[in-house]
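Predict the 3D structure for this chain.
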Amino acid sequence: MLHVETTSGVWAAFCQQIAAFLDADRIVMPIEGQRVGGYRSPDSRALWIRDHSDIVRAGRYFEADVRSSVTCFAEHQSASGRVFDYVTTEPSTERENWEKWVRVPVEADVEYRFVKAAFLAWQATGDDAWMQTMLPALDRALTYSMTHPWRWDEQHGLIKRAYTIDTWDFDYTAGRYPWLNFQITEDTFWGLMHGDSSGFYEAAQLLGILYAHADETEQATRWQQVAADTRERANALLFNGAFYTHFHKLTPVTIEGLDEARQLSLSNPMAINRGLATHDMATAILRTYHQRRAETGAFAEWFSIDPPFPDGAFGEEKLVGGAYCNGGIMPLVGGELAHAAFAHGFESYGVDILHTYRKMIAESGETYLWYFPDGTASSVDTSTSPEAMPTDGWGSSAMLYAFVGGLCGIEDQLHSFTKVRCCPRWLAAGESEARVALSYAASGASFAYDYAHVADAHTITLAIEAQHAETEVAVLLPAGTQPVQVQWDQENAAFTTEQREASLYVILNGTVEDHATIHVTYANA
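Done. Predicted structure below.
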């Protein structure tokens, strides 16, 4: 459940519309006598663990079944640790109604997305017993990524893949294959795509958290070290000073007419949200997106990749510049970008992205996986896939992820809202009052607050409700002010301040048992 009331009133409708999109994107299928549910891609009648692992970030507030998909993929994991991409019982190009499991060979991201999906399910359910049964599968998945010759580059100690467009599932063959190619061959062009490093880094971190929660200290320490080593190596090799280079080549290849060094690809804002990028790297990436918006003339800077590859370079005539993953404008990128902006002192930028998307879906009643740079929506005729649903869950869930974690500022840092960072940023949106109530459908665990900013009195009040939450509170102050007094339940409280670019936050910590009221008084600096 997600309930939002604000002074302007516009955000309640925004949340309701995205909830309706997500409801339309639920897919349930029978697998070996069990009902397996999850979130589908807008262009495929299948349950892809990669799409589900992102969409469930928002979907878990509305849907109770967040475990069955993860359990099912774990049960069908290979002995090596490899995880399937997707399962379907309704093949789009076949008449047989069989159950079909598929792994796209060029994909390198499936295992770390599987770990993320499991972690999100555990957060929403608080089911320690279930998670205990999942740990061996999660460990095997990341171990496979680090050991299989198709997935791991020993020289650099990072995830490798075929030359795909960012995280997409077909690779460049220099014309050796007549259409889109999904298979590894002796002619595969290998390299390092930065999104795999950020995704693997995050998954290793999460696996370390799960092991620590299960009191398996040795394994927790091991995966935390793997994560730290990955971050150090990836940031030293793949960051070019302004953003993460799209593809660090291991196999030499040149694509004529393309300035590959300028290619800004969709996993850049994800690298920020996954924690791979430092604050300085994050601000450089955000500024790069600002600059591209001014340079390109696109209606939004949510590029899948910019500049795109030459038309048809991957063997599909529909894959022209500005279409789909070859330069199309994707709300899923916009949502990640907005979340990153909120977290790194670009709050007004985050609000601007959310407002742009809010107005888009309010006017059309639809949302698509991608748009052409001029704002034209994708369609069946312009897509490489057989469907183009107007209820894209991948992008809409990313926008809700940015709204909840960024603007509302509620981030569950463990599970069941027992450890929370509460950082409302309504000041940046011009909202003087807000009521936010958030709960997981699977467990009913909840966290809520009432926010009030009285500018004339120079006060901000935050009244929090939670069953039991170790809470870090971060209160954004108006520009040009400093805190004078901070109280927790009418008692003076110790606090610090944190500067994020031009934004100043008051930081304090405490335990919320049912209710707590934080009162901040500020003055002009």
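The chain has twelve helices and 22 strands.
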